[in-house]
Input
Amino acid sequence: MSVRPLVIGNWKMNLDFVEALHLTQQLGVLLKNHPVEHTDVVIAPPFVDLRSVGSILDAERLPVALGAQHVNPQENGAHTGEVSVSMLQRLGVEWVIVGHSERRTNYAMSDEVVAATLRAVVRAGLHAVLCVGEALSVREADEHESFVAAQLRSALGGLEERFHPLVSVAYEPLWAIGTGVNATAEQVSQMSGLVRGVLAELLAGAPPVLYGGSVNAENAGTLVRSSDLDGFLVGGASLKAESFCAILHACDDCYAIKR
Ligand code: PEP
Output
């Protein structure tokens, strides 16, 4: 771990605005009592919670940035049910998750739309967290490396250099997301190495490489200490302030030791 750790909580379609306020307040209390020193923290609530969560983060001056789980790459117009980058920006969103596997698989988000979305996000000056990862069948066919490399090339190939500092990548194997079966430290290391190698061809600098897939308070320390990672994208365990904070501190402690 050579850059500041980054941990993003993806709340998915959980927590109405009252529950979201409650979780943000709990997180605030824990972080005030036991602050993280080195770790950049982002939470990505559902769209409808962004304003209320953002107002608590501002009012309490919490060291937590606001993220969105998805965005439409178009600027405006006839896109019923969608939300644009400028709408998110007006709510104080600074980070956007792009191409989460649930969007790719369940909502037919193609590689082309992922690439267009990433460009819309970074052109507006927001940080894009590009998600890549293989399904179990792809891994069983021993094609996970070429599959993930192709996803990276498709999303990032030809991106103008001035936008490179706004890109982070989350390696999230589909078979580990929400299953309770995390990738092993060895599997994560192998894939973070592959991701870093492909990124070195595509981007200037060294973008943060995160892992996501059943990360929790118990496995975060081992994963971050024994894999070449810059942090995590966390789903289920970000819905409880205690477990999310434990993951933040695992990263914070690791960075303090390794840097
Ligand atoms: C995710 O949604 O990106 C994720 C990694 O979920 P979980 O931590 O629940 O596996």
About this structure: The chain is about 45% helix and 15% strand. Residues 10, 12, 172, 177-178, 212-215, 233-237 surround phosphoenolpyruvate (CB under 6 Å).
